[in-house]
Write a structure and sequence with these properties.
- The complex is a heterodimer of chains A (113) and B (115).
- With 113 residues, chain A is an all-beta fold.
- Chain A contains no helices and twelve strands.
- In chain A, strands 2, 5, 6, 10, 11 and 12 form a six-stranded mixed beta sheet that branches. In chain A, strands 3-9-8-7 form a four-stranded antiparallel beta sheet, with no helix packed on it.
- Chain A is globular.
- In chain B, strand 7 and strand 8 form a beta hairpin.
- Chain B has no helices and eleven strands.
- The chains are: A mainly beta (113), B mainly beta (115).
- At the A-B interface, strand 6, strand 10 and strand 11 of A face strand 4, strand 5 and strand 9 of B.
Chain lengths: 113, 115
Amino acid sequence: AQSVSQHNHHVILSEAASLELGCNYSYGGTVNLFWYVQYPGQHLQLLLKYFSGDPLVKGIKGFEAEFIKSKFSFNLRKPSVQWSDTAEYFCAVNPEGFQKLVFGTGTRLLVSP
Amino acid sequence: DAGVTQSPTHLIKTRGQHVTLRCSPISGHKSVSWYQQVLGQGPQFIFQYYEKEERGRGNFPDRFSARQFPNYSSELNVNALLLGDSALYLCASSFLGQSSYNEQFFGPGTRLTVL
């Protein structure tokens, strides 16, 4: 069965600090990879996605993620976080050939001003 | 353009009751998927419907069922509610729903509380 692990459940950073959130998945076949964000009181929004090609993908709001196939990882990064980045972040995997998304448990990020 | 809409926003039921949740996809989208998000966890896939047919099912009991209507809206039904069914139920729509993956757009969810 497919699974996604997000090792950091809660992260607290000060503004301007750098961010890296870990994501590892378990699946033997080809996958598409995603990071979603859920701001307080809002619905899930797509931050970025990887289907193929350059393993370093850039998303909205200055976020980027790197796909390392050998490590089954898709870590999310941002060089300098802002207070408005306070949210819950979900890594998700789409096994190729299916429409479903398999989500990790999420990481709650709190950025203090 | 309206996004994915879901109703009701909140719902309180008691154990053993039945519930129906509704979802309207983005205009032009033909596929609807349902997810369950229990507090403190990520969303879990329940069903996917495309062109009124079930195209995928997650690991949920038969108490959970769904359908899609000719206008592509969808209903999720849960029978014989258990306390553990308390969760945020998310609907996501995509333009297509077969072969290659289509980006899913999520609605705000319905918060179900079972007492």
